[in-house]
Amino acid sequence: MAEASSSKILHPTIPPEPEHVPSPNNEGAISLHLPTSFLVLPPVAGLIGLGIGMSRGGSRARLRFLAENAHRPPTTYRGWVRLLPV
């Protein structure tokens, strides 16, 4: 009897490992344990995509505006002066 009780000697500085006890709420549920670094990747990728999209969209809108207004004559005196050769 003394041997059976001494098989689980606990060291005073090392806490015992908790035994896995499934809770009744998620019994049979599939669980996926992800490192926290993987949880940071989607928002960072979204922000990078947002920045690239805004940059490309702004450039495309600028070119479209210039193409639509290139044929119009200037409406101000300053606009006409800019057209004169130097």
Q: Strand pairing plus helix content: what structural class?
A: mainly alpha
Strand segment count: 0
Largest sheet: none
Averaging pLDDT over every residue, what do you get? 80
β-sheet strand percentage: under 5%
- Number of helical segments? 3
> Ranges with pLDDT <50 over ≥5 residues?
none
How far do the termini sit from each other?
Answer: 109 Å
Helix content: 40-55%
Overall form: rod-shaped
Order of helices and strands: HHH
Radius of gyration: 35 Å
How would you describe this protein?
With 86 residues, this protein is mostly helical. It has a domain at 58-86. 53% of the residues lie in helices and 0% in strands. The chain contains 3 helices and no strands. It has helices spanning 2-6, 36-69, 77-83. The termini are far apart. The relative contact order is 0.04.
Please sum up the structure shown:
The protein is mostly helical. Helix content is 53%, strand content 0%. It has a domain at 58-86.
How are the SSEs placed, and which strands pair?
Elements: H1 2-6, H2 36-69, H3 77-83
Give the key terms.
86 residues, mainly alpha, 3 helices, 53% helix, 0% strand
